[in-house]
Design goal:
The protein is mainly α. It has seven helices and four strands. The protein has a two-stranded antiparallel ribbon with strand order 1-2. A two-stranded antiparallel sheet has the order 3-4. A hairpin with a 2-residue loop joins strand 1 and strand 2.
Length: 308
């Protein structure tokens, strides 16, 4: 049985070929325009899932990197504040050694006591340090200054809390980024009184300087110096912790940079179009499409019925 090829069949097939060639050319054009080979999920379901996962990794990496940058800034500011406290404490110790000398008269000790008062005031100002509007030494009560620096006589009450502030630097990995100054025995700065913190040591030192008694003079040589040395050890320990945390953040940042590069490469390999291949395909498909239009124009001729 023979099949008769009619003009209608030829026209349908020609139009079908032209539409297919046009669709392929349009697809390649959109790939070149977007520079992506996956334009919708159905193009490559497995590749789409892989690209979604890569984008999620990149988003998480960006957030962890932001957290590390913020934590690094907080800790660097904290270390600078602790360094200033250390200098204040060294000055207080130097003055104590001077005042403890038997050749120092009471008038000189009274003057030294005035400077100790100023050191205590500066200590509280330093403890009120902020980073990006956040009080660094107030625990979780980050919107309130830890110490009152305006009252006279001075009030050493601590207005913060002993809560820790942490930042997440990886999946399920968090680090503490604040230094507690009113916890431990003795506390780093404390709230005055007899807690053994730096404020307590300075207030006791000033009292002994002004006492004018043999007991006060003896305390300068013994308990006061010992207390200041203990405070120095506490600050040194706090700074060591800050330094170790900064090193950890640096290592985490390097690791995240490697992860970002790997995820970016995976995403590119998964969905980016091969520009060279797509350009060749575009040229070929454009030629084929133009040829199909030319041939179709010859096959699909108008007949007398088209004008009736």
């Amino acid at each position: 049985m023979t099949t008769r090829i009619t003009n209608s069949m030829m026209s349908r097939h020609s139009l079908s070929d032209i539409m297919n060639n046009s669709a392929r050319l349009d697809r390649t054009t959109r790939e070149l325009s977007a520079q992506k080979r996956i334009l919708q999920a159905s193009d490559d379901p497995i590749g789409t899932a892989r690209a979604i996962a890569a984008r999620a990794d990149l988003s998480a990496t960006a957030q962890y990197t932001s957290n590390i940058d913020q934590a690094t800034g907080m800790l660097q500011t904290t270390d600078a504040s602790l360094d200033e406290m250390t200098k204040l404490l060294h000055r207080a110790r130097e003055l104590t050694v001077q005042a403890a000398s038997d050749t120092t008269d009471q008038a000189s000790r009274d003057n030294i006591a005035l400077e100790i008062d100023q050191i205590a005031s500066q200590l509280k100002t330093t403890a009120n340090s902020t980073y990006a509007g956040v009080y660094l030494f107030a625990g979780q009560n980050t919107t309130t200054p830890p110490y009152d620096t305006t009252s006279a006589p001075p009030v050493d009450t601590y207005a913060g809390d002993n809560g820790t502030v942490a930042r997440e630097i990886g999946p399920g990995v968090s680090v503490q980024v604040n230094t507690l100054i009113n916890s431990g025995t003795p506390p780093l700065v404390g709230a005055g009184g007899s807690d053994g913190g730096l404020l307590s040591s300075l207030r006791t030192l000033a009292t002994n300087l002004r006492s004018g008694t043999a007991a006060g003079s003896n305390a300068l040589k013994s308990t006061d110096l010992k207390a200041l040395d203990t405070n120095l050890d506490t600050i040194s320990s706090a700074r060591a912790t800050v330094g170790a945390t900064l090193n950890r953040l640096s290592a985490a940042s390097d690791r995240l940079a490697v992860n970002k590069e790997a995820s970016t490469e995976l995403l590119s390999l998964t969905e980016d179009v091969d520009i060279a291949k797509a350009s060749i395909d575009y040229s070929t498909q454009s030629t084929v499409y133009q040829a199909s239009l030319s041939v179709g124009a010859k096959i699909i001729q108008r007949s007398l019925l088209d004008f009736l």
